[in-house]
Every structure is written in C-alpha cells, then in structure tokens.
Fold this sequence. Notes:
The complex is a heterodimer. Chain A is an alpha/beta fold. Chain A has helices at residues 15-27, 45-52, 106-110, 120-133, 159-168, 263-272, 383-399, 464-478; strands at residues 5-11, 34-38, 71-72, 172-174, 220-224, 227-234, 237-245, 248-259, 288-296, 308-312, 327-332, 348-355, 364-366, 375-377, 405-410, 447-449. In chain A, strand 7 (237-245) and strand 8 form a beta hairpin. In chain A, helix 1 (15-27) runs parallel beside helix 8 (464-478) and helix 4 (120-133) crosses helix 8. The longest helix of chain A is centred in the last third of the chain and has 17 residues, at 383-399. Chain B is 43% helix and 3% strand. Chain B is built from 6 helices and 2 strands, in the order H-H-H-E-H-H-H-E. Chain B has a two-stranded parallel sheet. The longest helix of chain B has 13 residues, at 67-79. Chain B is globular. The relative contact order of chain B is 0.14.
Amino acid sequence: MKYDxxxxxxxxxxxxxxxxxxxxxxxxxxKKKILVLERGQFFPHAERxxxxxxxxxxxxxxxxxxxxxxxxxxxxxxxPFTTGFGGSSxxxxxxxxxxxxxxxxxxxxFGIEKDWPVSYADLEPYYEETEKxxxxxxxxxxPFPKKGKYPLPPHRxxxxxxxxxxxxxxQYISQPTARASRAVPGRNACMxxxxxxVCPVNAKFTIxxxxxxxxxxxxxxxxxxxxxxxxETRGNLAKKVNYxxxxxxxxxxxxxIVLGANPIFNTNIxxxxxxxxxxxxxxxxxxxxMQVLIYLDQMKNIGGSTWVxxxxxxxxxxxxRKDFAACLIETNNAPYYIRLERGKWLNMAxxxxxxxxxxxxSNYITNSADKLVPVINFNGRSDYxxxxxxxxxxxxxxxxxxxxxxxLKYLDPFPNEGHILGGTRMGHSAKDSVVDKYLIHHQYxxxxxxxxxxxxxxxxxxxxxxxxxLSLYTADHSF
Amino acid sequence: xxxxxxxxxxxxxxxxxxxxxxLYLSSPSLRKYAGELIREELxxxxxxxxxxxxxxxxxxxxxxxxxxxxxxxxxxxxxxxKAENSNQIFELVKYYLLSTDFFIHRMxxxxxxxxxxxxxxxxxxxxxxxxxxxxxxx
Lengths: 479, 138
C-alpha cells in the first residue's frame, strides 16, 4: 500500500463503485489519493469463456460461490451474486430499462410505502449519461420520458413482438439493453446466442470492457483479495476501514469511505461498525419473476434477438398499484422454450413476468459471530405481490387476444430474480431510512452507501441502470 | 417382448415404476432405450445414421452416468411415456434437436438431420433457433 491514509477509499468494483469513481475522477483531477479494496480477483472475460467452452483455464475453481459467503436462513429462496472485479457486471444480462417516474412516488400516487427523496427528473440526466457510457441499444419511443435517443438502434422484434407493438405502441417496446446491437469499441454486436451471463461474443457491457479506465487512473490504487468487514468510527465519522487479506487483519485510514459492495455485504459492514440505526438491514428483498409459456397456433415466433427481447408495460402502471404490484413483461427469445409437436417447434412465445415487492421489515440482514459472514433472513413475499400475480393471470389472456393463442402455461415462480434490493434504504432522516438522498449515511457523514440497497421501493424494473445513475448523481452533487 | 406385453407384465398401468430384474440384466446396452425414444418421438424426420447414438453417448457422459440413470431411460421407453408427459424425455429430445442442423435448415423435414455435437450456446454454430440470424427477413 502506497500511503497510510487516503482521500477516498472505495469498497468493491461493481457498477455502483465504478460509476461513482468515474464521476469523482472527473471532478477531482490528478490530486487525490484513492484506494480501492476488492474482495475478489480480476477474472478476465476470455478466461470465463474458456471455462464455458470446457477448455482449460487457470481461473477454473477460483471464484467464490455465493452460498459459501453468507448464511441463508431460507433455503427455498436463493440470492446468487458474483464477486470479483466488475461485480455483477460479470454475470448480469444487460437489461437496462429506466424506472418509471411513478416508481419514485409510490406514496404520493398510490399510498404505498414511501416516496424516494430523489425524483425521476433529478435522475434523468444521469440516466442519459449512464446509457451513453453503456452504449445502450433501445427504441425511439419509450413508456418513460426520455429526452435523447439511445446511443444504438434497438434490437430486432420477433413476429409476436411486432404484433404486440402494433397494438400497444410505446407500452410494448424493444428492450433497452446494454447488449450492443452494433459493434462499439471493446464490444461486438450481439448474435442472439441467448446466454448473456458470460456473453459468447462480448457484446454485453461489463466493467472490464467498458473503456471507463477508472482503475488504471494514476490516482487509483487497487488491492485485490481484500475483504472489508467493518469501519472504525469516532463520533459521527468513519476513520478507518478494516479488512482481511490472505487470512490477516488490516486497517487503513480514509477521509471519505464508499461502500460499493452488494446490499448484503454493505449491511454487514455497517452492522459490524456499530451502526445502531434500527432500519439498517431491514426492508431487504427483490422482485419476483415467473415464466408464462404462450403456445401459438400456426404462428412461428421467429426473427428476434437474444434472450430478453422486449418489454411490455401493459400491467405496470396505473391505480391498481394502490392494491397490487406492478408487473413488467420481459419477452424471452430463448432456445430452451421450443415445442416438440410436428410443425409447431417454434410456435411458442415465453414471457417472464416480473413483479415489484415491498420492502418489509420481516425480511432483513444481520451480522453473525463470523465478522465476514452476514445472515439473510427472508420470510416471504408481500400480499401486494401475490395479488399482482393473480391480477396478471386474469388480465393476460385479454392482453394477448391479438395473438393466435392455443394455451397459456404458467410456471412456478423462480427462486431468485438476481436483483438484490434494500437493506440500506434512502430517505429524509434516520427515523425513516439509513442514507440520505445523496446516499450518505445519516449518522456517519463521510460514508456513502451505494447501490440498489439504497432503493426506497423496489419497482418492477431491472435495477442496474438506476443504481449506476444514482452513483453518478451522488458523486456529481457531493464533490 | 413388445411394449404392450411389458406394460401388462410390469403392471405399469396402475402406476408402478418397477422393472423386472431380468429385463435390464439381459439388455446389451441400457442407453439404447433413450435413443429409441428419440427415434420414436421424431419418427417423421430423417435422422442421420449414428447421429442419435453419438448424441446419446455425449448426453449421458455430460450428465449423470450411472445405472439408475440408464434404468430410468429404459423404463421410459418400455412404459411408452412420451415427451409431452415427461419433462426428462422432453429435455432429451429437445436437446437432440438443438444439437442437430434441424433449425439451421429452418425445420425442413425433407433434409437429413445431422448431429453437430452436444448443444452448447458457446460452441453451437447457431445456438438460438428463433433468432434473426436464421430469419433476417422478419
């Protein structure tokens, strides 16, 4: 380590940390000492591909499995995540719809939970900036307000998408996505392989291929294999970061400390630091996803792009959110949903229905006797979400009446949606939240707690674009 | 022994899934039943000689490979269970189709299906049968 004390210490190298650091560097040129502590290693995309192809790689077996890093009290509920350089950018599927403006005003509009302390209008320029950095592909018309065009043209519709877009217009669109529809520097064009966690053609945005170069900046020093477990606090400030590396404990002093791990580990660090806000760790959860198979009569659902092809908003917004959850439709152009009846092999559409859930106090994260291992306590879904599923089942046949539907088959909800949310939610004071509108901890005023843990409510939309935009927003307003 | 006799003997009509021991002990190759299931299910397609057998070898070598697995497929065959009634048969036949050039030839039944290697989205020439790569005109 170069110094005894740093101006800025960042924990983690995922979306939240990287976008924060990008904006911070733009505003503090060439004069800061910055330390990044990453618990994992740099695991290159090329090596991940080798493993997927069954080829030899020195990296095989080096990655942590999420279930080895936490105590998950409810084994039916899964919380998969990826550690290491780039965080979840190394496993996400590149879905980047914006939140709807209503997602920030759930209390004002629907009497549900609390409003966010930031609005859609506050985030709009940062959405725009994030989409530019990620070279997002998307359509001209969207259900959410948007000032500029997406950097890349949209992906292709399937035959079913064409019909639904014709009927529902901007309520049914090609999904905005960080899977490139055209080649851009560092990334190829998507070839619809329909396996996006490790993109076979490197079309998906990752921190590794982003070209953001924040970790090679001369001001930045990165330490791998450093697992942060607590902060040393004095009064209302954090003074040092405590971490384990190669089995030994270390500490390092910092002026500003940024927690950019996922919500589970951000919470663990705060609880191990003596954070006595009763809300820390509470209101943790994620959206609920379930698949609907749509059997089509004499219609092939061909011509589309990769797995998540389009988004439908017909069940998303409206006064029904006073009573039950919004539902975002993802249409999946996936090879695994084919039929075996003669002549009908591709007469199938598959929709993933994603429902918002409520941040309930009965779902929470705690620390444990092992300072490195948090405990996930998940005790179930809200009635609000379950009623949303019933509403969807009632409404979907009518919504699809423009298609030649033979039958619908509803599959069981998935054990995870891959979107870990809440636990360090934002609000106006320590009485209603953990962090303020700039993601600064209400008590420890030199500690930022980034990421989707800060979401006041969960939305039905994929969280990554919003959490990255929030990082730009908070760094822009704080320095 | 034909299927009908076997079904009657084993009492599978009443839901039993127990096979008489002589049946599997005397079989030359337990995996052949999985191959027979594919050939029956896709009887209307022209399957290249040897392709199904090679697929079966690859499929079972890539997944659990033990006597219970093989027995399972033998019983599916003899019980006359179809893909529409069994997720495991559905998966077996589905991955066979995805592992051939069937979708690359846009499901042309007049063409012989050639096995290209076990389906893998990282190796298969066109891994998504729905995609614009195969149907650019849509």
